[in-house]
Amino acid sequence: MSATGRSMALTPPEVLARKGGVPIVCLTAYTTPIARLVDPHCDIVLVGDSVGMVLHGLPSTLGVTLDMMILHGQAVRRGVERALLVVDLPFGSYEEAPEQAFRSAARVMRETGCAAVKLEGGESMAETIRFLTRRGIPVMAHIGLTPQAVNTFGGYKVQGRGESGAAIERDAAAVAEAGAFAVVLEKVPDALARKITAQIPIPSIGIGASPACDGQVLVVDDMLGMFSDFRPKFVRRYAELGNDAQTAIAAYAEDVRQRRFPDESHVFADEPAAGRKAGNA
Ligand code: KIV
């Protein structure tokens, strides 16, 4: 933020204005170093509650707390300058009533400096979305497969096939009408995602949805090949960092066992060498 109070970061209205334009790029981030890597390339950086599964080894997102989201939101904030920072409201922090959602969202915004929150749910959350957006809290909605409802769905299944697609169309219309500036469409059939994208006035951000969506989001650890507990069909792996890390760690272990590491370049002389930096001398 500059002295004039103007931030360089993309704003929710600017994201909204991208409807039907150049696709909106969104990735998750949970830490400062990854935030610094994704920020120059993304329009939206999402601190997703997927952090629970990806970084904390939880079996689902249900165990993620508001404090966890705030801690990771603060870390990501330090690495984001130009993208819109959005933080997920975790399970149990907003569903009870619009007032509860407001308290949680206000705390997240105050303590992380994010410019918007994301919450799961369609028609059932429209009143809450309206309550928040009328009180200065921009909301990104999330419909289709909403992972916090995994127990209701009985697994991470494609949502909205056949007749049930109509309910997701109603969800999309409801969150748009309630004031959401964008909506994540997760794991719905391509044809349904295309139809919804054409019907609603706000950007659709697809994950396992359709190339016709107004934007795309992926979990960064999935696309970098760092999270391999499972491999969703909708992920394209742009790197295999998990494999590379395994190879590097095995090489280090072998070097230590064979006394190949450290060598003379990693150790310190009794007297500091003249002209070298303090930490290296
Ligand atoms: O929690 C998350 O990372 C998400 C994205 C996958 C959309 O909600």
Biggest sheet: strands side by side, in what order?
1-2-3-4-5-6-7-8
From the helix content, strand content and strand pairing, which structural class follows?
alpha/beta
Task: Report the C-alpha radius of gyration, rounded.
Answer: 22 Å
Largest sheet: 8 strands, parallel, barrel
Helical run tally: 11
Question: What is the succession of H and E elements?
Answer: HEHEHHEHEHEHHEHEEHH
Task: Report the β-strand fraction as a percent range.
Answer: 5-15%
Structure report:
The chain is of the alpha/beta class and 281 residues long. It is 36% helix and 14% strand. It has eleven helices and eight strands. It has an eight-stranded parallel β-barrel, surrounded by five helices. 41% of the residues are buried. The model has no long low-confidence stretch (mean pLDDT 95). The site of 3-methyl-2-oxobutanoic acid has 10 residues, from loops.
Keywords:
281 residues; alpha/beta; 11 helices; elongated
